[in-house]
Amino acid sequence: MAAEAYAGLGAWTPESLGAGAVLPVVSAPHTVLSRAGAEVDPTDEETIRLAADLIATMRVSPGCVGLAAPQVGVGAQVFAVDVTGHPKAVTLHGTFALCNARVVEATRWKAGREGCMSVPDLTGDVKRASRLVVEGALPGSGELVRLVTDGFEARALQHEIDHCAGLLFLDRVAGAHAIYQRKVYL
Fold this sequence. Notes:
The chain has 2 helices and 6 strands; from the N terminus they run αβββββαβ. It has helices at about 45-60, 150-165, and strands spanning about 65-70, 80, 95-115, 120-135, 145-150, 180. Strands 1, 2, 3, 4, 5 and 6 form a 6-stranded antiparallel beta sheet that branches.
């Protein structure tokens, strides 16, 4: 599709999805986490409800900046992201959800530490693009969007797109030397 057909988030808001339910998050080695999710119809009521549920679940989960459908046991290409307020975030688009997202441009690769709600006891160093262009569809309207971002938000988007493809951050670490026990602060 031509770039002109894409827009930013525009007037879309998470409230347009309606209220979502808080869903339980599955942990590795749950099989849904290692399978590529199916493409979805972003205007389908089930997809809209799933996007609302992902946002609701993300909002009540301390430290969570993104959540993908496979993490709540659904094999679908839908995720939510919100890095607002995170100390590493510079560029941010607020709270949003995307369907069938794909990376169209990735540059400026850097290693950084990642954690995941589905891998609660570990973190790891993962090399990701720090400048990113992503295309996807907004749940509800189905409008195609192109987001240009960088830094921490770019990392979060890549992490969630990986979940939709059946990958965990553990699949991206350089080796066992780059995996760490998560620190718990009291």
